[in-house]
UniProtKB/TrEMBL annotation, chains A, B:
GO terms for molecular function: hydrolase activity. This is Fumarylacetoacetate (FAA) hydrolase. Residues 1-78 form the Fumarylacetoacetase N-terminal domain. Residues 81-333 form the Fumarylacetoacetase-like C-terminal domain. Keywords: Hydrolase. Gene3D superfamilies: Fumarylacetoacetase-like, C-terminal domain.
């Protein structure tokens, strides 16, 4: 099944089923009006939604509407828990290498994870509002899963069974604020503003053949100001699978239905020491920080700027037939001014 | 007004108004069935609730019920945002002193803040389930506020106007997991399991004379295994007021109605270098870590153990007439075993 949430002006939006080809949608108020409601009662309601989904794809519903990605809110416009891992350890290693720091060996066995703001997600086509370009504005293309209720202390293998939906993420980061904030020792807070998610979240049966070992084996496409910027395969170099990430999150507390767990920035090692840009025949990158780190290692200093007002990032994933699976995240950075 | 959420078996519980003396309660489904609903529409619904509250206190409602704190869930059983500051910098300074580390001077001007799990709060009388005593189980007595919608970039002075409710917190901490986790650089995650809040959350007009300068000027009482353990005044040595903490949280993103902002562990400097236990005539402590730090500084090593299975912590605050304002957090630590 594919789900989206239409922005109807309410805080939680209106849940709709979206056809497999993303062309039509239908509201299902008889089953659930919001995605959180559906997740709260998944066992009971998912089979009912599946019936409607079959009819929607068969073209036999008279009440379906054209589906517009730009009319979507985040699948969960606000969520109770959003935790982001750093499963592509290559990305972390590059960060360290760029500042001549050793990476602790435990990073290969114990996931990094931080908790992000989940009360005010951006819509997939919403502008990214930032007060200053000096904050070092960056995108981070990632995969995320939404879980049902997960008990505390669950092993990784069993945690896989709690994945209900998959989507894409833009984990917006303010690189200029990170060193000071991490230096304080309490982790990210101001340096991670509102994240955005793909218009559509899908069940695992929509990913047949490409969802294996709790990883999504397809390229994640990042297009920056109209140019191909990254296409690393999300199934490659993912050190921790989603079962391991969920188990890490649930080690000392249960997770409530609707918890979102992110993969961290998708990054492929590419068989070279530094990775390679798409223009050089490589798979490129899922964030600007990574190319800057490679420039720093190679040239002694970064050459690519972080995002400026007006810059645009598009993040998408195509299936093996070239069809968009989740719809696109497509966002432009704009200047924010506080209206007192 | 005073609000509580009764545990009725549902995920969000049933919102009730509670009489000022905590003796009676009444459901207000005609206004809101959950506290989040009320916060989502505060301007419209609060005046309606105020009318019922007056009648409840006057004893003129025929449908009120006896109020039982032990039947309560957390005021918000699950919330979209829970961020905890460290406003009592004395506490932070002691942590550093115990390990012979200098505290950066910026800690006096730039608040520390971390985001905690908000999807599965513990009820105020619920057991604290932990898998191992080796995790270093500790309580942390704190004050917290609940905001309405706060715009990004708000100044501290204006942020004060967004405080809707006040309550108490037990920010349960696993001290044994903290050094390794903070050493990884991403902040707290597994070392901060589910927090708990007082049964009752109150509006500012309930705190007349003791809510000043966005601080709550009353002693926070911690009773550990039946013995008085702490009574520091929450209005003393609070370096950052709640307006400053909210403004810090909202610097790079808006806050959604229902955001909970905590004060960090309440701690008074007490005019001595090390602070003083209640038995020694001082105001004591709001967590075990603090007395252990003082023992370490004074004796070279800590003498007090962290919590063991069976230990009990009670956190409460009395008004100037000796009446409980928020009801009590009263929790026992028990062993958790994963049921596969």
């Amino acid at each position: 099944m594919k789900f989206a949430t239409l922005n109807d002006g309410s805080r939680d939006g209106q849940l709709v089923l979206v056809s497999r080809d993303l062309s039509r949608s239908v509201a299902i108020p008889q089953i659930a009006t919001t995605l959180q409601q559906l997740l709260d009662n998944w066992q009971q309601k998912a089979p009912q939604a599946e019936e409607v989904y079959q009819a929607l794809n068969a073209g036999s519903l008279t009440n379906s509407q054209p589906f517009e990605q730009s009319g979507c809110a985040s699948p969960l416009p606000r969520a109770y828990h959003w935790a982001d891992g750093s499963a592509y350890v290559n990305h972390v290693e590059l960060v360290r290498k760029a500042r001549n720091a050793e990476m602790p060996p435990s990073f290969w066995t114990d996931p990094l994870m931080y908790q992000g703001g989940s009360d005010a997600f951006l819509a997939p086509y919403a502008p990214i509002e930032v007060a200053s370009e000096d904050y070092g504005i960056d995108f981070e293309g990632e995969i995320a899963v939404i879980t049902d209720d997960v008990p505390m202390g669950i092993p990784a293998e069993q945690a896989r069974d709690h994945i209900r939906l998959v989507m894409l993420v833009n984990d917006v980061s303010l690189r200029g604020l990170i060193p000071n904030e991490l230096g304080k020792g309490f982790g990210f807070y101001q340096s991670k503003p509102s994240s955005s998610f793909s218009p559509v979240a899908v069940t695992l049966d929509e990913l047949e053949g490409v969802w294996q070992d709790a990883k999504l084996h397809l390229p994640l496409l990042s297009t920056y100001n109209g140019e191909a910027f990254g296409k690393p395969n999300a199934g490659v170099d993912m050190t921790f699978d989603f079962g391991q990430l969920i188990a890490h999150a649930a080690r000392t507390r249960p997770l409530c239905a609707g918890t979102i767990i992110g993969s961290g920035t998708v990054s492929n090692k590419q068989g070279t020491e530094y990775g390679t840009a798409i223009a050089e025949g490589g798979v490129g990158y899922s964030c600007i920080a990574e190319i800057r780190m490679i420039e720093t290692i190679r040239d002694g200093k970064p050459g690519t700027s972080f995002m400026r007002f007006g810059d645009r990032i598009r993040i998408e994933m195509l299936d093996q037939q070239g069809q968009s699976i989740f719809g696109a995240i497509d966002q432009q950075v704009v200047e924010y001014r506080y209206q007192g």
